[in-house]
Amino acid sequence: MKEGIKHICLTEDDPDDYYFFSEVLDELNGDVKLTWFQTCEDLLEYLKAGDNLPCLIVLDLNMPKMDGQTCLVSIKEELALHHIPVIILSTAGYPTTIDQA
Length: 101
Prior knowledge:
Residues 7-101 form the Response regulatory domain. Keywords: Phosphoprotein. This is Response regulatory domain-containing protein. The structure is a single chain. By secondary structure, the chain is α/β, with parallel strands linked by helices. The chain has a domain at 39-101: Rossmann fold, CATH 3.40.50. The chain has helices spanning 15-28, 40-49, 68-77, 95-100; strands at residues 6-11, 32-37, 56-60, 86-89. The protein has a four-stranded parallel sheet. The protein is globular and about 35 Å long. The relative contact order is 0.20.
């Protein structure tokens, strides 16, 4: 990846949300590489490979199979990954869900 280009991993199962997110990034700053994962399992597999780690992870809590909360715990338990900032993306409005994230 070229120097100066930021890499963001988006984990989101809804293609419409991915499209919206990528369009906003393009409008704000064209120097961002966005890698999209539709499952937490795919994200974790990519991260554990250690190639081209992102500077930021955007993670949906409401995911199929492994939920975003479990995925977040897995990321933060991995010594090579725990330094990567994670932004939680969710439509959940429950205070307990927000506090847990």
